[in-house]
Amino acid sequence: MSNQKVIKNLKTFSTAAERFEGSHVLCPGCAHSIIVREVLNATNDNLVVSAATGCLEVCTAIYPHTSWDCSWIHIGFENASTAIAGAETMNKVLRKKGRIDPSTPEPKFVTFGGDGATYDIGFQWISGCFERGHDFMYICLDNEVYANTGGQRSSSTPIGSSTTTAPAGSTSYGEKRNKKDMLAIMAAHGSPYVAQVAPNKWKDMIKKIQTGFDTKGPVFINAMSACTTEWKFQPHETIEASDLAVDSLVFPLYEIIDGTELNITYRPKNIVPVRDYLAFQPRFKHLFKPENEYIIEEWQKRVDAKWEYLQKREEARV
Amino acid sequence: MNSKQMELNKVEVWDGNTCNAQAFRQAAVDVLAAYPITPSTNTVETYASFHANGYVDGEIIMVESEHAAMSGCVGAGAAGGRVATATSSQGCALMVEVLYQCSGMRIPVVLCLVNRALAAPLNVNGDHSDMYLTRDAGWIQLDSFNAQEAYDLTLCSFKIGEHKDVRLPVISNQDGFLTSHTAQTVRPLSDKVAYDFVGDYLQVNAMLDFTNPVTHGVQTEHDWHFEHKAKQHAALMGSLFVVEEVFEEFEKISGRKYNLVESYKVEDADVVIVCLGTTYETAMIAVDAIREETGIKAGVLAPRLFRPFPLTQLASKLQNVKAIACMDRSAPGGTVGTLYNEVAGALFNTQARPILKNLVYGLGGRDIIVNELKEIFVSLNEEAKNGKLNGKIQTLHGVRGPELSFYEH
Ligand SMILES: Cc1ncc(C[n+]2csc(CCOP(=O)(O)OP(=O)(O)O)c2C)c(N)n1
Ligand code: SF4
């Protein structure tokens, strides 16, 4: 079992001793930093963290500074998962060989990657690590765009979003395809625990992160990470944007245990229309033109269908 | 060590891949992450059989690609232990991104590179295209000419790379098939002598040392990047002296002497072949034969250390030579061969400015035989006598069809 914190309320949680210091250059309002703080503050365990190339990495470890008061490594864009797999394996060997005292508590291994690093270029490496069953937690900071290189589409970019490589124009409504269902894919890898989290629902998130730390084997967490710069809302509106995402069920919060037991962990009291979520973010502004409105309707239908599906699966336990 | 020791005979019959695997086992590698590719596959298979039979108490991670293999090695090395892998050709090409990241982070991984051609066309046989591909990746590179040397130099690689003043990854090169798959007599060290020579792993900035958290693989800007790279280069250049030291120590325990530059009958030679890998031994036979048959004063020279390149040591050995054929076993890609460039660079600022020509040969595993090398010595000798090149600077030696030569002199 891990050495977890007992977190009673937001005040004590937010004033916990930091292992992710404030001295970073992420944009004001960036959800990446909120999520990382919540993850690192959820446990007192020793941590070994790897980060994929992306906003988080380039903004938190610029020589001669670092924001990380824990073991940390960045290699490349695609291979953060395998870096942790190497470290995790070395930990096993050094304990077996007695070069680490086996009575010292086991550290926890965590990887952070953006959606580009996770859904696209790093997918093969993550798949390999999950198939081999390494004991670590992979956390995707899902801002639905390649933010660090200036806002290109990824396979997490939702339909209708205007990005620099899938821009809306006089003959295009922007991104043409639906977001990849990464959680289903990772559950299908035989992961003992996968979950979606959002930083605004911090209690739900902490619970899932702590469950992840307590789970043996590869754990996948998809964290919705609102990006003020590419979603184009004001820095103080991050939590509002996140609330709209989970309350509209565009980003439902649920978990899948051992690939079968599905639990919905947050049910909005008042479900917000998808329109409201989209209207909040100028990246979808062009969808409100009459010729594009059908995309919003289709989006709503898909969200409804997914919600129904999740509820049925929860009930059926399959 | 909890693993079983292996009783080895004074003389074993091993191929080059077995030599790699035995060196990994005796160095008690902690983590090996690997992916199969001909002709280096057998290194990993042999090592896996040692593991399966209790001779290894480290871990093997059989990853899904070579890029992941090297990524796993870097992560494991940064965690604080001894790591190694093996690859060839396309696998090496897929690793290249991570090779730079590994050396930039100063993680002393040992990579046994079993040299093979790069596609297209797809070819599984030996040439030096993959060795050249990794030329500027910041790794120390040793080159062996037979199986015994592959074993010896792989053991030395751990000691060199992990040295506290070096902390750099090392590639131990050998020729695909010619060395990797050819059973040869090898005199191994005992497990104890070998391990004592390599020594315990020197832990530096380990991620598993939680009293000193460290940040590996930072981002730099123009304000610091140059200084990082300068220090890395200084360590790489300085490793040359560590290599010499390690070679001396190795001679004491094995009786086998290695030099930064290996040469045969170069001292009084008029004409010399400079090459890499197994061609060195073939050329030694040609040197003896041509000297006996014609009296031509021939010699052969090969850098033992490909990176850092032993420029001055090589130049000093070639001061009295009149004509040199530099042999490059890699498709040259629009210029003279890499080895030719190195040798030209070494000699340009010295008194000796011998005739220097570039022969591209043996691509994709094509044989080079003693008679061909003798012919090269004969024509070099004519050029030495006439004081000028007979033909262009670069020739694709032995290619079928009309002669292909390039670069006027
Ligand atoms: C092999 C490789 N290809 C491309 C890049 C350029 N690159 C760096 S970060 C990045 C985008 C990162 O996007 P994402 O993973 O979504 O993370 P975010 O920055 O949005 O947090 C890209 C394309 C790279 N570093 N390496
Ligand atoms: S661009 Fe987006 S993800 Fe990147 S630092 Fe800014 S807000 Fe965060």
Automatic annotation (TrEMBL), chain A:
Any GO BP: small molecule metabolic process
InterPro entries the UniProt entry points to: PorB-like, THDP-binding, TPP_enzyme_TPP-bd
Region (Disordered), start-end ranges: 151-175
Domain Thiamine pyrophosphate enzyme TPP-binding intervals: 53-222
Recorded GO MF terms: oxidoreductase activity; thiamine pyrophosphate binding
Keywords, ordered alphabetically: Oxidoreductase
Bias type Low complexity, positions: 154-172
Annotated TM spans: none
Pfam families: TPP_enzyme_C
UniProt name for this protein: Thiamine pyrophosphate protein domain protein TPP-binding protein
Species in which this protein is naturally found: Arcobacter nitrofigilis (strain ATCC 33309 / DSM 7299 / CCUG 15893 / LMG 7604 / NCTC 12251 / CI)
TrEMBL record, chain B:
A Pfam family assignment: PFOR_II
Recorded coiled-coil stretches: none
NCBIfam families: PRK09622.1
Protein name per its UniProtKB record: Pyruvate flavodoxin/ferredoxin oxidoreductase domain protein
Domain called Pyruvate flavodoxin/ferredoxin oxidoreductase pyrimidine binding: residue spans: 23-237
Presence of the UniProt keyword Oxidoreductase in the record: yes
UniProt keyword list: Oxidoreductase, Pyruvate
